[in-house]
């Protein structure tokens, strides 16, 4: 594979990993920086290609989810264990962790992957916390 083909392949892979919001921003930036002659005919001028593109985008929106992790409550007898877990988990100091659990419910992570959200929930629940994971469709 030549260098241009390899570059294009990697570019497409990276684009496919992007969220709809990210794609929208990239499109706007490209529109600002690239001027295309009005006589230029692209593949997207074909309605069937546009429709399949819409289907792919709609499917991608459903697949691309981000999650928020909300710490709701905790077992008071495990307060110290939870404070230690929070300090390690979200890299905050002792006072910040103590203040955080005194003002529940609190969102401790926003826009994280499903796997990360589930692992974090498990860790917090092992420390006596009650945790909710909410999803955001991007």
Q: How would you summarize this macromolecular structure in one to three sentences?
A:
With 138 residues, this protein is α+β, with helices and mostly antiparallel strands. It has helices spanning 3-16, 20-33, 47-63, 79-90, 94-102, 114-126, and strands at residues 65-74, 106-112, 129-137.
Spell out the blueprint of helices and strands.
Elements: H1 3-16, H2 20-33, H3 47-63, E1 65-74, H4 79-90, H5 94-102, E2 106-112, H6 114-126, E3 129-137
Antiparallel strand pairs: 1-2, 1-3
Family: Belongs to the bacterial ribosomal protein bL12 family.
Organism: Euglena longa (Euglenophycean alga)
GO molecular function: mRNA binding; structural constituent of ribosome
Instruction: Identify low-pLDDT runs.
Output: 37-41
What does the radius of gyration come to? 22 Å
- Tell me the major beta sheet: 3 strands, antiparallel
Could you say which overall geometry the principal axes of the C-alpha atoms support?
Answer: elongated
> How are the strands ordered across the major sheet?
2-1-3
Number of helices: 6
How many structural domains are formed by the residues?
Answer: 2
Protein structure class: alpha+beta
Distance between the termini: 34 Å
Descriptive notes:
There is one protein chain. The protein is α+β, with helices and mostly antiparallel strands and 138 residues long. The chain has two domains: 3-35 and 44-63, no CATH class; 65-137, Ribosomal protein L7/L12, C-terminal domain/Adaptor protein ClpS (Ribosomal Protein L30, Chain: A, 2-Layer Sandwich), CATH 3.30.1390.10. Helix content is 57%, strand content 19%. It is built from six helices and three strands; from the N terminus they run H-H-H-E-H-H-E-H-E. It has a three-stranded antiparallel sheet. Helix 4 (79-90) packs across helix 5. The longest helix is centred in the middle third of the chain and has 17 residues, at 47-63. It is elongated, with a radius of gyration of 22 Å. The chain starts with a helix and ends with a strand. Residues 37-41 have low confidence and may be disordered.
């Amino acid at each position: 594979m030549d260098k241009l083909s390899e570059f294009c392949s990697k570019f497409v892979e990276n684009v496919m990993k992007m969220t709809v919001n990210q794609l929208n921003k990239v499109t706007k930036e490209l529109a600002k920086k690239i001027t295309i002659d009005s006589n230029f005919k692209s593949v997207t001028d074909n309605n069937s290609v546009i429709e399949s593109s819409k289907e792919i985008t709609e499917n991608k929106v459903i697949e691309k989810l981000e999650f928020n992790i909300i710490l709701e409550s905790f077992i008071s007898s495990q307060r110290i264990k939870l404070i230690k877990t929070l300090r390690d988990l979200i890299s905050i100091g002792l006072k910040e962790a103590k203040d955080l659990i005194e003002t529940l419910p609190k969102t401790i992570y926003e826009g994280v992957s499903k796997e990360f959200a589930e692992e974090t929930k498990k860790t917090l629940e092992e420390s006596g916390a009650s945790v909710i994971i909410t999803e955001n469709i991007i």
